[in-house]
Design goal:
Belongs to the mandelate racemase/muconate lactonizing enzyme family. MenC type 1 subfamily. InterPro entries: Enolase-like_C_sf, Enolase_C-like, Mandel_Rmase/mucon_lact_enz_CS, Mandelate_racemase_C, OSB_synthase_MenC1. Its EC number is 4.2.1.113. This protein has 12 helices and 12 strands. Helix 5 packs across helix 6 and helix 9 packs parallel to helix 10. It is an alpha/beta fold. Strands 5-6-7-8-9-10-11 form a 7-stranded parallel sheet. Strands 1-2-3 form a 3-stranded antiparallel sheet, sandwiched between helices. Strands 4-12 form a two-stranded antiparallel ribbon. It folds into 2 domains: 100 residues, Enolase-like, domain 1, CATH 3.30.390; 214 residues, Alpha-Beta Barrel (TIM Barrel), CATH 3.20.20.120. Helix content is 37%, strand content 18%. Helix 6 links the parallel strand 8 and strand 9.
């Protein structure tokens, strides 16, 4: 029997809720500390960790995902290991080798580009450094997080094309921009992937049907959970890869459960990001081994919860946020 999100009382969520602040190895998405709320449901630990700048409507999807993962069994897995990519933040070229060393055996690297304090020349130098280290057989994808307009994206793809890109993720912010860019650069044969356009859309399937992209990047938490993401993938008719949102190993295990349930998984997944954390909530984090992470749930360590617990006022901020999101889910009738 599947538990609906609205049948889980707020008191049951708060009974085991703990909030942690985990330091990062290097700055990522403009932050050096990742906050997350952990809860223990009947079937295991789960995670509620929308980025702090997200509003309650968007964050409520993350809560639906947390309830689904903590209160419902995961779908039957089709694979017991998930091949993952390395993730290279917007670092200087001389720092790339140290970053890649944290992802042993990974044949694919996703490189962050279009950062606010970075130039295109910086991006090209970083991607070239990755190519040199991975060699000609390595796979490189770049992620702009919607940071370019159409002209900037077209110019950037020309500059980055000699590095032999697997695909470019969310080069522009809007679906209309992605569609125009795809038309302009079709001759370059560089696939375009949608991430933010999918998880922030009121109708994710409309993005797939628009013809604006070649593949989708799906994330379990922002899409409302494993089952919601599987429904989107089934209806999209496009290749997908599964990625994380700088999760703890609990959230990564949720993503791995989604990846393990997909009939087709043509691309390495962005689920190796525990290597970007300088601390975690489990004794054995889901770091890549031979380019893969295992599937299955993880067990949170109470000592680590204590060590990285946030201050009382910050914990109360998360409790208030959880309460507001729970109210939104209840008002929506659980139809997520």
């Amino acid at each position: 029997m599947t538990v609906q999100v609205t049948t889980v009382a707020l008191a049951d969520l708060l009974a085991t809720a703990r909030v942690v602040a985990l330091p990062l190895v290097t700055r990522f998405r403009g932050i050096r500390v990742r906050e997350a709320m952990l809860m223990r449901g009947p079937v295991g630990w789960t995670e509620f960790a929308p980025f702090t700048e997200y509003d309650d409507n968007e964050a409520s999807n993350w809560l639906a995902a947390a309830i689904d993962y903590g209160w419902n069994p995961t779908p039957t897995p089709l694979r017991d290991r998930i091949r993952v990519n390395a993730t290279v933040p917007a670092v200087q070229p001389h720092e790339v080798a140290a970053i890649l060393s944290k992802f042993p055996g990974c044949r694919t690297a996703k490189v962050k580009v279009a950062g606010g304090d970075q130039t295109l020349a910086d991006d090209v130098a970083r991607v070239r450094a990755v190519r040199e280290l991975l060699g000609p057989e390595g796979r490189i994808r770049v992620d702009a997080n919607g940071g370019w307009n159409i002209d900037e994206a077209e110019h950037a793809l020309h500059a980055l094309a000699p590095c032999d890109l697997e695909y470019v993720e969310q080069p522009c912010a809007s679906v209309a921009e992605l569609a125009e860019l795809r038309e302009r650069t079709a001759y370059m044969d560089i696939p375009i992937a949608a991430d933010e356009s999918v998880r922030r859309a009121s109708d994710p399937l409309a993005v797939a049907a628009s013809g604006a992209v070649d593949l989708l990047v799906v994330k379990a938490a922002p899409l409302g959970g494993i089952r919601a993401a599987l429904t989107i993938v089934a209806g999209a008719g496009l290749p997908v890869t599964v990625s994380s949102a700088l999760d703890t190993s609990v959230g990564l295990a949720m993503g791995a459960a989604l990846a393990a349930s997909l009939p087709d998984l043509p691309y390495d997944c962005g689920l190796g990001t525990a290597s970007l954390l300088a601390a975690d909530v489990v004794k054995t984090p889901l770091h890549p081994i031979d380019g893969c992470i295992p599937t299955g749930r993880v067990t949170v360590d109470n000592d680590l919860l204590e060590r990285y617990a946030v201050a009382h006022d910050r914990a109360q901020w998360w409790v208030a946020r959880l309460s507001r999101c729970h109210a939104l889910l209840t008002t929506a009738g659980g139809g997520r």
